[in-house]
Amino acid sequence: MSEELKSDTITFPKTRATQLSDTLRQAIADGQFPPGSRLPSEAQLTTAHGVSRTVVREAIAALRSDRLVEARQGAGVFVLQSTPAPQPFNLSLGQIDLARVSSMIELLELRTAVEVESAGLAAVRRSPAQEEVILDRHYAVRACLDANQPTSEADFALHLAIADATNNPRFREFLTMVGRNVIPRAAIRGDDKDADQTGYISLLVEEHQAIVEAISDGSEEGAREAMRRHLRGSQLRYRALLRALREDVR
Question: Would you identify the CATH topology of the domain 101-248?
Fold first, then answer.
């Protein structure tokens, strides 16, 4: 088996918008565009990097989400700082013990309150480029499953892509705050290769498919309902696991 397949780190193909935003982010960090300076115009970036205007706009939106730049009407896009600003989202999860199944149920309930709305907003607000990223991340989860690799990184990337498609940076802030442990399998990990785990992940892929299709169809209520079923299904599975664990200790 190759070292790539042995690694727990999954590398995802980057979209052109992501590649451009990474390039600009690095240029800002390196001082090529210091705070207060103006970025090249949309037309200049399109020509210099051989991409469409849509790609440029998505890349700039990513920088704005990180508070690296701001758009000034009639003047252009200006650099605010060389590194992303600290996230203001200030919810303490210190009381949540991520090693406990009961804590994962608590976190899933919290996620449901946030991510159901995230899916609905993504369905009506997503751009073509954002929809492409969501599809790429969904296919990455399936590719991990086919290759018998851990899926938690790919799963988290999919949820981040949906959050980004709301075009409200607070949704990404929430997921980034709770980190990869927003995906229960990353916090309570068993043997990723056993039959039960494979069947469980296959079911999650089917649930993801329903979410992705609803978002692609622009169905706000359909996306909300698909995400609600997905997260409530996870809650039911972990409640069953919790009951089984309690039976074992009796």
Answer: Four Helix Bundle (Hemerythrin (Met), subunit A) (1.20.120)
Smallest CA-to-CA distance from 51 within 17, 14, 101 is with 17
Cα 154 from Cα 182, distance rounded (Å):
12
Give the pLDDT of the chain (250 residues) as one tens digit per residue. Answer: 333 333 344 444 567 877 898 899 999 999 999 999 999 999 999 999 999 988 888 788 778 867 788 888 889 999 998 876 554 444 444 444 444 667 777 788 888 889 999 999 999 999 999 999 999 999 988 888 888 777 778 888 899 999 999 999 999 988 888 765 556 554 444 444 444 555 666 677 889 999 999 999 999 999 999 999 988 887 787 777 667 666 655 5
Angle formed at CA 21 by CA 163 and CA 32, multiple of 5 degrees: 145
The domain 16-79 is classified under which CATH number: 1.10.10.10, 1.10.150.20, 2.30.38.10, 1.10.3720.10? 1.10.10.10
Contacts of 106-112 with C-beta under 8 Å, sequence gap 24+, read 107/178, 107/181, 107/182, 107/184, 108/184, 108/231, 108/234, 108/235, 108/238, 109/235, 111/182, 111/231, 112/228, 112/231, 112/232, 112/235
Instruction: Please indicate, yes or no, whether the overall pTM of this predicted structure exceeds 0.70.
Output: no
In the chain, the amino acid numbered 76 is G
For residue 224, what are the contacts with CB-CB under 8 A and spacing of at least 6? 116, 117, 119, 120
